[in-house]
Amino acid sequence: MSSPTSESAPVQAPTRSGRSFRTRLAAYLSLFGIVLGAPALFVTVSAPWSELDDLIGEANVVVAAANDRLPLTVRAKLNQVTLARLAEDPAPPDAVSLGRGLALLVQEGQCLDDTALSERLNAYPDAENFDVPAVSAACRAWVSWFEARADGPGELLAFHQADAALASALRTAGRVDLVAGDVYLTLDVPGQPFFERNLAYVATAARWWERPPAPGHAFDLVEVDGEFWRDSYRPERGGSPGFAHNPTHAPLLPRFETDEWGTWFSAWYAPEPTDGHYNTVTVDINAAAVTAMMSRAAFEVVLSLCIGLLLIAVAAGELARWVSQPVAALQNGAQAVIRLDFNHTVPALGDNEFVTLIHTFNQMIRGLRERGNLFQALEKVLSKELAAAAANEGLVLGGQVVPATVLFTDFAGFSTITRGVPATEVVSALNAYFYELVPLIKEHGGFPDKYIGDAIVAIFGAPVRTPDHAERAVRCALAMQRRLRTVNATRRAAGKIVFEMRVGINTGDVMVGAIGCDEKLEFTSIGETTTVANRMESICRIGHVMVAESTWAAIPPERSVSMPHNGPSSLKIKGYDEPVSAVEVYADTLSIERGPSEAGSGDPYRYGQLPTGPAPTR
C-alpha cells in the first residue's frame, strides 16, 4: 500500500480589492530610482578616476620621452657625480645654493658675477629667497670641482645633456595639457646606508632661479611616506622595472602629496638597473583638478544619499502602515512552526497580495502537519533516509507478499575467533565492521533489516519498491566483500581482530510487514525466500557471494556478464530434500579458509588463490 497521506480539500483563495502591494511598492521604488539618478551618479563618481587615468597616461608619455633622451653613458656619468657628492657630504648646509649654482653653470654655460646675476634675476620676479653671493660662489665652486676630476668635462657635458632632455620632457608635458611641476632624475643604489630610506636627486628640469636640488640631495621616502616608490621597481620588494605612479587606492583614495606648492601626484619610469644602479625619471603632476572633481563628486554623492534616505524613510513609513499587521501575523505563524505547533492558523489581513501569501502560508502549515504525522508513523519502522524516500515514492507495509531480494551476511568462525576475547573488544570490532558495511546497503537502495549477532540481514525491493532489487543486492554484496578486504588490511596492520565474511542472496516472494506493538514496531521479512538466503550464506565460500538461481535469473544477462562467477550448480542445502540451483559470484580471485596461515601468526584465516580463477560465463 502507498504511504498514508491525507489530501486536504483545495481552499479558494480570497479575492483582493484595491491597489496591490506590488503596485504600490513598484511606484515608490521607481520614484526613488528616478530621483536618485543612479546612472548620473555613477558618471559623477567615475569622472575623477577617469581624469586621473588620463593624467597617468600623459605622464607616462613625458617620462618615456625623457628616458629615451638619456642614454646609459650619460646616466653613468651623472651617477658618478651624485655618488661622489654623497661621499663628500650627504647633507651639505648650503644645498639650495649648490643646486642653483650647478643649474646656473649648466643652463647659462658660465658663472655670473654678483652684479650680472642680480640684473638677470630682475627678469624673474618669482625668484624668492635668492642669496646672490652664495649662488655665485657655488657656481664657481662647481667649476673648480669639475676641473679637479679626471672626467670633469665629460661629466659636466652629461649634465648639459640631462638638462636638455628633462627640459624637453617638461615642454612635452605642456603640449599634452599636463600641469607638471618638475621632471627629474633620481638614483637608488641597494645596499648603501644612505639609500635605506632615501633616493638621491641627480638632475632636474627646474630653472636655476627656482630651487633645483643639487646632485646627491636626499629625497626622504620615509618622511613623505613614499616607500611605494621603491617597491614599484625593486624585485626584492615585489616590484619590477617599468612605469609606475602613486597608489590610486591607498587604501581607498589616491595618495597625493601636499606641500607649499600645492597637491601633487607623481609618475615615473624605472628602466632596468645598470651595475646595480636604479635611475628613475619622474614627473610631478598638479592634482588640483582631480581633487576638486573628487570633492565635488563626494558632495553630490552625499547629497543624493541624503535625498534617497529621506525618500526611503517616507516610503518605509507608508509601506509599514500597509504591511505591519500581515507581517506580524505571519511572524506569529512562523514562531508557531518553530514550536512545531502545526494547528496554528494565520488570520487573513489586508486587501492585497498578503491575503494570498497568508493563505499559502496556512496551506504550508497544514502540509507540515500532515507530513509530520506521516514521518511519526514511518520512523517507527524505517530509518529517516528511507522514511523520506517512502514519503515521496510510497512503501510496502502491513504484511504483504512482495517480490524482493534478501541478503544474509555472516562472519566465518566468529564464535571460535572471539572465544576468550573480552566482550568490549568484540562489540567494538563488530561496530567497526558494521560501520563500514551497513552504509553500502543503503547506498545500493537496500533496507538493513536486523542484526543477528554477527550477521546482517538486508532486504532489497521492500519497504521501498525497486524493480532491479536483485542486481542491487548482488552488487552490494560484492562491494561489501571488497570493502572488507580494505578494512581487514588496516586492522591486521594494527594488530586487531579480523573477520572474513560469507554472503548469501535469494530472490522471491517475501512476506514483509511491521511486527511488534504500538511502543515498538520493526519492519522485517519472513518466509522461505529469507530461509533460502540464510542457507546460501552457510554454503558460500569465505570472502565471496552465493546467489540463488532465482536471483541470478532476475539480473539481465548483459548486466551479469561483468560479475565473475562459476556458473549455475545444484547444491544440497540443509532442510531441503531437493538440490537448489545457485551461482557463486566472486569478489576477486582470493581463496580464504579457516585456520592460521602460519603457526603462531594469530591470523584465523589462510589465504591463497582460487584454483582456476572465476570465469565470467553465464
Helix and strand topology:
Layout lengths: L20 H16 L1 H31 L3 H17 L6 H14 L5 H8 L10 H16 L4 H24 L4 E9 L9 E7 L13 E3 L6 H5 L10 E4 L11 E3 L2 E9 L7 E9 L1 H51 L14 H26 L5 H10 L6 E12 L2 H5 L4 H21 L2 E7 L2 E6 L8 H25 L7 E17 L2 E7 L1 H11 L6 E4 H5 L3 H4 L4 E7 L8 E6 L4 E5 L10 E5 L9
Parallel strand pairs: 11-13
Antiparallel strand pairs: 1-2, 1-7, 2-3, 4-6, 5-6, 6-7, 8-10, 8-11, 9-10, 11-12, 13-15, 14-15, 16-17
Helix pairs in contact: 1-9, 2-7, 2-9, 3-7, 4-6, 9-10, 10-11, 13-14
Characterization of the model:
With about 625 residues, this protein is of the alpha+beta class. The chain has 2 domains: about 70-285, no CATH class; about 395-610, Nucleotide cyclase, GGDEF domain (Alpha-Beta Plaits). It has 17 helices and 17 strands. The chain has helices at about 20-35, 40-70, 70-90, 95-110, 115-120, 130-145, 150-175, 225-230, 290-340, 355-380, 385-395, 415-420, 425-445, 470-495, 530-540, 550-555, 555-560; strands at about 180-190, 200-205, 220, 240-245, 255-260, 260-270, 280-285, 400-410, 445-450, 455-460, 500-515, 520-525, 545-550, 565-570, 580-585, 590-595, 605-610. Strands 8, 9, 10, 11, 12, 13, 14 and 15 form an 8-stranded mixed β-sheet that branches. It is elongated and about 140 Å long. Residues about 1-15 have low confidence and may be disordered.
